[in-house]
Design brief:
Helix content of chain A: 40-55%
Radius of gyration of chain A: 29 Å
CATH class of chain B: Mainly Alpha
CATH architecture of chain B: Up-down Bundle
Largest sheet of chain B: none
Oligomer: heterodimer
CATH topology of chain B: Cytochrome C Oxidase, Chain A
Structural class of chain A: alpha+beta
Structural class of chain B: mainly alpha
Distance between the termini of chain B: 22 Å
Radius of gyration of chain B: 23 Å
Shape of chain B: globular
CATH superfamily of chain B: Cytochrome c oxidase-like, subunit I domain
Chain lengths: 361, 555
């Protein structure tokens, strides 16, 4: 081995130790994705081998030396039908198989835990329901379906976890979602795969998969003291949303209690299902979404509240099942003239209902 | 001469290049710049696209050098972003789209169908000027700081977030787009109206069919790109808000518009290349193309289906799950005509009498590499695997297999095949074989590792990457140097052959097309008398009879 140059030798050693054809299979969907990948690879290799065999075989059999005079052949309907129908059949199998996986990846189960992810140039911010924030990393437990609800604050980004075989674009102006269930404890790559400007290649991070116990520990250690819904409640008061959306008979805005997952009738006569995307849009573009019976007086909050803030508000509205606490904060505001003081008393006494609310979601 | 070749050159001691031909008819730079002759315009195009290919290739070299190490150390990330953007813009809009149609198509289509020129010679010249205007604007963009949006101009990045030369690049592509619209229009009119007597649709060479299909795509698709670019420009300058969610616009709309052109554009690039392969395979196996009609119609089928698959570029962008079913299915359907072509070409060899001149080597290279490129396209058209593979190096490898392994191999094959016709001289055979094999090996070493990188998850457009991907990247860069040599060699020996190449004669390959029955280089008016097509395309028995007749009359 002395004859090989040390650089080349090091290179070879590096090759042998690092050589991998597949990333780790760390999610439930990964083995299914790999199975389909193997199938298509196999079909492709057979197809390619067939083409190469035909080319090489005919080249040898019918080279000018062996076969000086060509025999003119028009074509063959049977042969041509064969190589139309067989590839078509194989492609259709891939189509069906692939679509099954696609629908699985992009249809989150009802019991999934929802984590919000906001992409912005050039970082990922994850918001756990309990209010834990993290930048360029995501801690998740094994054995629990996780739904990511993604949105971008500026340009297109794409949240890619190769070890889980999932990826979803984060788009400005709308929520997208993807889910997965991690199976292997470990740290995996997180990449932004949609080109997003100067530091695109540094918009990377770690997916940290923990055992459920470690995850619980992590949650308590990284708590910010306020859940998303609690933070939303604070915003709801400080943006004076409660001035109109308070459920009183004379209120200028519709009551928001139990509005989530309900069917609304809008002033243009349309029926609208109030999901997260609708709630977000109604905050940012209120003039487009006037509930029947109310005047179009709500100002837009575009530019006044960040995507993180909108997420908190949406999470808060999702937990609202009565106007009792809205009324209460309103009264507190009436009593306390200084606006800074109201947030803490409003949220401090009742962390329990908010937390319970997120769990039931 | 060995029996394993079909090259039939005239006696070199007495042979002369015909005194009157399209090159010698007029002299002076103006006679070229103001020409209406389709053959001269083809030469103008050939020189200009070679120039831009060299620029695009140099940029590719810079990309591969940067990726030699995991850190972004050769250049800053910003510079890297500009380099890959300019590489894409130059290669796609200034090389691949015009490559075969504007050079070989321009030169050959009128002769192949027995016409004096294209239907609209001045429009043809205008196309070249538009192309050059676009090209010069791209150079201007590059000199004044470049652009870093990626060649896909994703909004809102291109409209609101970058402060580089988006507008001048957009204008360049807009202008160059009209060049391709005019070329397409010219081809369609010419093929419909100017075929010689007896040249029915099903007697046309398949090269003409392929260019006809590509022309339809150019004329119908390119305007949509122009619209998308105008909207980006308006959004960027006056903020009309079509793509801006804050103003009620939809950034996904841009994706729809852009890919409505840019997916068919892939077929604009590859179809003419497929036409070249049909001609080359038939000539060097001395046989009519197996299933002529199927190959002709598969070009048209690709052109039609090609318009309805654009959403497969957007499977992970939050489009409706159900719409992906439609587009994935249509993507599978568009793969079928390509499969038909590959098998028909392979069976053209069956019971042929095959020789292995350089164009044939390129054609073999094309079939192997395009098969890989096409099959890896199926991985991406399958929605499930697309989730994992899209936006990674798998995509990069896939489209380079189609565009470089497919289209560029076809272009080089065609250039070697028709070089004797265009210049009257042969290229050096052994050297060109070495170049073809070098390019084939270099290509595979460059791009095969990228499939693995892609499955491992390495994202595209990354200036820096995790260190575990380095080995495969080093391999890829090593391959790129070999590939570069494979492309540099032809430039050198083609230039050499202009003066020192053997005299080719009218028909060195004993091919059947009308272009081979006239002198090399052809006359400005192509034919001395109107040709009459009295036989099918690729009729080698007709050719043999004709050769025998000429021989007896001469004797």
């Amino acid at each position: 081995m002395d004859h090989i140059s040390p650089v080349l030798w090091q290179f070879l050693v590096k090759w042998m130790t690092n050589f991998a054809l597949f990333p780790p299979e760390a999610s439930k969907i990964a083995p299914q994705m790999d199975a389909l990948y193997f199938f298509i690879t196999l079909v492709s290799l057979v197809g390619l081998t067939l083409v190469v065999l035909l080319l090489v075989g005919f080249s040898i059999l019918y080279s000018k030396k062996r076969h000086p005079v060509a025999v003119q052949i028009e074509g063959s309907t049977i042969l041509e039908a064969t190589w139309t129908i067989i590839p078509l059949g194989l492609f259709l199998i891939m189509f069906v198989w692939g679509s099954l996986i696609y629908f699985r990846v992009y249809t989150p189960p009802a019991n999934a835990m929802n984590i919000y992810v906001v992409g912005k140039q050039w970082m990922w911010k994850a918001e756990h329901p309990g209010g834990q924030h993290e930048i360029n990393s995501l801690h998740i437990p094994t054995g629990q379906p996780i739904q990511l609800t993604l949105i971008s604050q500026d340009v297109f980004h794409s949240f890619s976890i190769p070890a889980f075989r999932v990826k979803r674009e984060a788009i400005p102006g709308r929520y997208t979602s993807v889910w997965f269930e991690a199976t292997q404890v470990g740290t995996y790559h997180l990449f932004c795969t949609q080109y997003c400007g100067t530091e695109h290649s540094h918009m990377i991070g770690d997916i940290v998969v923990l055992s459920p116990e470690d995850y619980k520990k992590w949650l308590t250690e990284s708590t910010s003291g306020m859940s998303l819904a609690q933070n939303g409640e604070r915003l709801f008061a400080s943006l004076s949303c409660n001035a109109c959306h308070n459920g009183r008979p004379d209120a200028r805005g519709p009551s928001l209690a139990n509005v989530y997952n309900s069917k609304l009738r809008l002033s243009n006569g349309q029926e609208q299902f109030a999901d997260e995307a609708y709630l977000r849009d109604a905050i940012l573009n209120p003039s487009e979404h006037i509930t029947q019976g109310y005047a179009p007086i709500m100002p837009t909050y575009q530019g006044q509240v960040s995507e993180d803030g909108v997420i908190s508000l949406v999470e808060y509205i999702k937990t609202l099942n009565s106007n009792y606490r809205v009324e209460q904060t309103l009264n507190t505001t009436d009593l306390l003239p200084e606006s800074e003081g109201k947030a803490t008393p409003a949220s401090a006494p009742k962390p329990a209902p908010a937390a319970k609310g997120t769990v039931t979601q | 001469m060995s029996s394993a070749t079909i090259v039939s050159l005239p006696d070199q001691s007495t042979a002369r290049i015909p005194k009157d031909n399209f090159i010698t008819r007029e002299n002076g730079i103006l006679s070229w710049l103001l020409t209406g002759d389709h053959k001269r315009i083809a030469i103008l195009y050939l020189i200009s696209i070679t120039f831009f290919f060299a620029i695009g290739g140099a940029l590719a070299g810079l990309i591969r050098l940067e990726l030699l190490t995991p850190q972004s150390d050769l250049m800053a990330t910003d510079t890297y972003n500009k380099v890959f953007t300019m590489h894409g813009v130059v290669m796609i809009f200034l090389f691949l789209v015009p490559s075969v149609p504007a050079t070989l198509g321009n030169f050959l289509i009128p002769i192949m169908i027995g016409a004096k020129d294209l239907a609209l010679p001045k429009v043809n010249l205008l196309s070249w000027y538009l192309y050059m205007a676009g090209g010069i604007l791209v150079l201007y963009t590059m000199i004044t700081g470049g652009v870093d949006t990626g060649w896909t101009f994703t909004t809102p990045l291109s409209t609101h977030y970058v402060n580089t030369n988006v507008l001048s690049t957009g204008l360049a592509i807009f202008i160059a787009g009209f060049s391709s619209i005019f070329t397409g229009l010219n081809f369609i009119v010419t093929i419909h109206k100017m075929r010689a007597p007896g040249m029915t649709w099903f007697r046309m060479p398949l090269f003409v069919w392929a260019n006809y299909a590509a022309s339809i795509l150019m004329v119908l698709g390119t305007p949509v790109l122009a619209i998308a670019i105008v909207l980006v420009a308006l959004e960027r300058t006056v903020g009309i808000g079509v793509f801006d969610p804050a103003k009620g616009g939809d950034p996904l709309l841009f994706q729809h518009l852009f890919w409505f052109y840019s997916h068919p554009a892939v077929y604009i690039m590859i179809l003419p290349g497929m036409g070249v392969i049909s001609e080359v395979i038939s000539t060097f196996s001395r046989k009519r193309v197996f299933g002529y009609t199927a190959v002709a119609f598969s070009s048209v089928a690709i052109a039609i289906f090609g318009f309805f698959v654009w959403e497969h570029h957007m499977f992970i962008m939050g489009v409706s799950n159900y719409s992906t079913l439609v587009f994935s299915l249509l993507t599978m359907l568009v793969a079928v005509p390509s499969a038909i072509k590959i098998f028909n070409w392979a069976f053209t060899l069956y019971k042929g009498s095959i020789t292995f001149e350089t164009p044939m080597l390129y054609a073999f290279g094309f079939m192997g590499l395009f098969t890989i490129g096409g099959l890896t396209g199926v991985f991406l058209g399958t929605t499930g695997t697309d989730i994992h593979l899209t936006e990674t190096y798998f995509i990069v490898a896939h489209f380079h297999y189609v565009m470089v392994g497919g289209m560029l191999m076809a272009f080089l094959g065609g250039l070697h095949f028709w070089w004797p016709k265009m210049t009257g001289r042969m290229y050096p055979e052994s050297l060109s074989k070495i170049a073809a094999v070098t390019a084939f090996i270099g290509f595979n070493v460059t791009f095969m590792p990228q499939f693995i990188l892609g499955y491992l998850g390495m994202p595209r457009r990354y200036a820096a990457y995790p260190p575990e991907f380095q080995v495969l990247n080093v391999l890829s860069t090593a391959g790129a140097t070999v590939l570069g040599m494979g492309f540099l060699l032809p430039v050198l020996y083609f230039a050499w052959s202009l003066k020192y190449g053997a005299i080719a004669g009218n028909n060195p390959w004993q091919a059947t097309g009308l272009e081979w029955q006239v002198q090399s280089p052809p006359l400005t008016e192509n034919f001395t008398q109107l040709p009459i097509m009295d036989h099918e395309a690729y009729d080698y028995e007709w050719l043999a009879k004709r050769e025998a007749d000429t021989a007896t009359t001469t004797v």
